[in-house]
Design brief:
Blueprint lengths: L8 H26 L5 E2 L1 H8 L3 H9 L6 E3 L2 E5 H10 L1
Antiparallel strand pairs: 1-3, 2-3
């Protein structure tokens, strides 16, 4: 069963504007939240970003669950990679 709703052009335009405005707000809020965190983080910052303990992050690293780079003795975590990791696990 399919329903059809006929809207006046004015109402249709108003709905388009409202939806576009709401979508833009979501994008802006997301950017604002992520701008508080650096693109590349050390281990302590990455743990805080993920909302987990330093020890839990160490365990995830040992189990190769979380993406990271080991460069010249230090660990670096890419914010986008961490977001993807959390979205898929």
């Amino acid at each position: 069963m399919q329903a059809e709703i006929n809207l006046s052009p004015e109402l249709e335009d108003a709905l388009k504007v409202a939806i576009s405005t709401a979508a833009q707000k979501i994008v802006d809020d997301s950017k604002s939240k992520n701008d508080k965190w650096p693109m590349y983080m050390n281990k302590g910052t990455a743990a805080k970003y993920l909302g987990i303990s330093y020890n839990t992050l160490s365990t995830w690293m040992d189990e190769e669950k979380v993406p990271y780079k080991h460069i010249a003795g230090s660990y670096r975590f890419n914010r986008n990679d961490l977001d993807k990791f959390m979205a898929t696990n």
